[in-house]
């Protein structure tokens, strides 16, 4: 029986840990994160799954600390698996497993190496993404690929919807290759890093809308950061507006660019190129309908504040 130490968090961590257990892997330890009270915890708990199966769990601030390395080395694992774990594992840790350390990444590597790959893929208008199981090195997301599974990104998919697909893709990729991996038959393919790029993390302020962009670009941003993510924001009449859902339209602009108006009970925004229907929005912290907004303020064009 192969022994593994698993570094995991989030839904991908839950589903991939479940795959290891289904294949009879001896999971000697799970290393996870404590939930941040300032974060919207909408995803499942790796710690809860580990507890259900009686697996010891730790949540260190630094997995590379000497005492953690000593604890893990004593377990003599064959493999490390990292499933949406948020800290980089350094060489002293990566040298421990006898048969290698593997990571599940939420893109079709070498594309979208780095942070929040699902959100970046949507922002950049991709029509496909997926999950990749690869060997870990000290450099993020550049090791040899063991398995990949692609999923489509539909034109109106939100980041949550795509992430749910990517979670299933991760489960499928791991499940399909794990027997060969455990038996020592898995073939790994070197990445051509010239065919992809590295992307950094995103902050809430990166969701501020630039209305001079095209309707399609803004629609991609809105769906990439839609709840449970922080949402795309703008200002109207001096108050914060959070755009929750949009749809591109074939409407002709009926006013000045970068403005908001209501017509026949529906809200619209005139962009640098094209018009978006604003399907759902919050204004001054309260979700408001187009009809309610028009009843109070009228249907004329209101320019978005810069």
List the helices and strands and how they pair.
Layout: E1 3-8, H1 10-22, E2 26-31, H2 46-52, E3 57-58, H3 66-73, E4 79-83, H4 91-94, E5 101-105, E6 113-114, H5 117-123, E7 128-135, E8 145-152, H6 159-183, E9 198-199, H7 215-224, E10 232-236, E11 239-248, E12 259-263, E13 266-270, E14 275-283, E15 286-288, H8 290-297, E16 302-305
Parallel strand pairs: 1-2, 1-4, 2-3, 4-5, 6-9
Antiparallel strand pairs: 5-7, 7-8, 10-11, 10-16, 11-14, 12-13, 12-16, 13-14, 14-15
Helix pairs in contact: 1-6, 5-7
Task: Describe the 3D structure.
The protein is an alpha/beta fold and 306 residues long. It folds into 2 domains: 3-199, 3-Layer(aba) Sandwich (Rossmann fold), CATH 3.40.50; 204-305, Formyl transferase, C-terminal domain (Methionyl-tRNA Fmet Formyltransferase, Chain A, domain 2, Roll), CATH 3.10.25.10. The chain has helices at residues 10-22, 46-52, 66-73, 91-94, 117-123, 159-183, 215-224, 290-297; strands spanning 3-8, 26-31, 57-58, 79-83, 101-105, 113-114, 128-135, 145-152, 198-199, 232-236, 239-248, 259-263, 266-270, 275-283, 286-288, 302-305. Strands 3-2-1-4-5-7-8 form a 7-stranded mixed sheet. Strands 10-11-14-13-12-16 form a 6-stranded antiparallel β-barrel. The chain has a two-stranded parallel sheet with strand order 6-9. Helix 1 links the parallel strand 1 and strand 2. Helix 1 (10-22) runs parallel beside helix 6 (159-183) and helix 5 runs antiparallel to helix 7.
């Amino acid at each position: 029986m192969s022994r593994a130490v698993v570094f995991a968090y989030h839904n991908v961590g839950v589903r991939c840990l479940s795959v290891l257990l289904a294949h009879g892997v001896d999971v000697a330890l799970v290393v996870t994160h404590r939930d941040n009270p300032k974060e919207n915890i909408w995803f499942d708990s790796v710690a809860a799954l580990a507890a259900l199966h009686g697996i010891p769990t730790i949540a260190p601030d630094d997995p590379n600390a000497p005492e953690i390395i000593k604890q893990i080395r004593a377990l003599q694992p064959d493999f490390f698996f990292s499933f949406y774990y948020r800290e980089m594992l350094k060489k002293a840790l990566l040298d421990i497993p006898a048969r290698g350390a593997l990571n599940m990444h939420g893109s079709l590597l070498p594309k979208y190496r780095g942070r929040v790959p699902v959100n970046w893929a949507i922002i950049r208008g991709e029509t496909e993404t997926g999950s990749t199981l690869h060997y870990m090195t000290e450099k993020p997301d550049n090791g040899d690929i063991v398995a990949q599974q692609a999923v489509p990104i539909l034109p109106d998919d939100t980041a949550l919807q795509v992430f749910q697909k990517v979670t299933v893709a991760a489960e499928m990729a791991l499940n399909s290759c794990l027997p060969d991996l455990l038996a020592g038959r898995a073939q790994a393919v070197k990445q051509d890093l010239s065919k992809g790029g590295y992307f950094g993390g995103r902050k809430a302020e990166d969701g501020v809308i630039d209305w001079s962009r095209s309707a399609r670009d803004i629609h991609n941003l809105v769906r990439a950061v839609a709840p449970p993510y922080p949402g795309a924001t703008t200002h109207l009449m001096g108050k914060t507006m959070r755009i929750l859902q949009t749809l591109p339209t074939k409407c002709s602009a009926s006013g000045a660019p970068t403005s908001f108006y209501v017509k026949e009970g529906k809200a619209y925004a005139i962009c640098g190129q094209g018009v978006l229907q604003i399907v759902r929005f919050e204004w001054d912290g309260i979700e408001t309908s187009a009809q309610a907004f028009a009843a109070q303020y009228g249907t004329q064009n209101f320019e978005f504040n810069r």
